[in-house]
């Protein structure tokens, strides 16, 4: 009999040692980032045991506004029965929500702050969400620019990253890790030093922070080659006749993945680019020939004085055989005198 009592005592002592004398609430939060005034709100969280959990709501002056509870929680967790927002929150401001178990007192529980803005309630965070500064970037087209956005408080988890305010259409950012990646296409660098400005945004609960970044896209060096070196003087006095070299169309500097018209536009719009082309590629009759485009006819033709009546040129062509021959011999690219003077 004494042996049985001893075994029972050991078992009872073990159960006492394994079962906590009380179970405290460890943490809790709203079940959504916010609840509107038309919804029912609820909390869930963790506890050390499996006791009934109560959540008391008080206003900023300590006034009692109501209570929620979970009468049948699971082991180590709880989730209170939802209640209407409008029954607890009537005035805009900050409220305290305190969760505690059946064996705790209210002042021994865990308290979080809830804000009501007149339309919804949301948890007031106990941290400041702030992005680390992001420097502006510079990249050549067809090259990849990549960096990782992050926040100053490394203890915060679950923040969400995004891009706003007109980011490049094919730029991406990982919403969880903050890794940004972008490979500018060939068209992004058509204008030298093209700039793309947009926002990197991070959000956590009701908090948001953003940083504006500018990425400058340049054309690759191959498109703007260094000036050709001057040819060395030949000491050989013997004259030789070289076979004429066939022009390479398009020219070596042309990136065939680009729109050839972009080179024509730069030639017409940028004096520096025009000089670079004229100095280095005199073998081409025009920028159009170099990029493989047919040069459009100049209308009116170069010989036309635009202060004169264009009909006067037509009349001379029809009345003067010498003038007609001069025009036909020198401007065969025009289908007629009418086209040349802009009357067609």
Structural class: alpha+beta
CATH arch. level architecture of the domain at 19-123: Sandwich
Q: Describe the largest sheet.
A: 6 strands, antiparallel
Mean pLDDT: 84
Number of distinct beta strands: 18
CATH class of the domain at 19-123: Mainly Beta
What is the assigned CATH homologous superfamily of the domain at 19-123? Macroglobulin (MG2) domain
Determine the strand fraction and express it as a percent band: 25-35%
Tertiary shape: elongated
Strand order of the largest sheet: 2-11-10-9-5-6
Helical percentage:
10-25%
H/E topology pattern: HEEEEEEEEEEEEEEEEEEHHHHHH
Q: Which residues sit in consecutive blocks of at least 5 with pLDDT less than 50?
A: 7-19
CATH topology-level fold name of the domain at 19-123: Immunoglobulin-like
N-to-C span? 126 Å
Report the radius of gyration as a whole number of Å.
Answer: 40 Å
Helix segment tally: 7
Helix/strand layout:
Elements: H1 2-18, E1 25-30, E2 34-36, E3 40-41, E4 43-47, E5 53-58, E6 64-70, E7 77-79, E8 83-84, E9 93-101, E10 110-116, E11 120-123, E12 137-140, E13 145-148, E14 160-164, E15 172-173, E16 179-182, E17 194-204, E18 207-218, H2 260-269, H3 271-280, H4 287-291, H5 310-319, H6 321-330, H7 337-341
Parallel strand pairs: 12-18
Antiparallel strand pairs: 1-4, 2-11, 3-8, 4-7, 5-6, 5-9, 9-10, 10-11, 13-16, 14-17, 15-16, 17-18
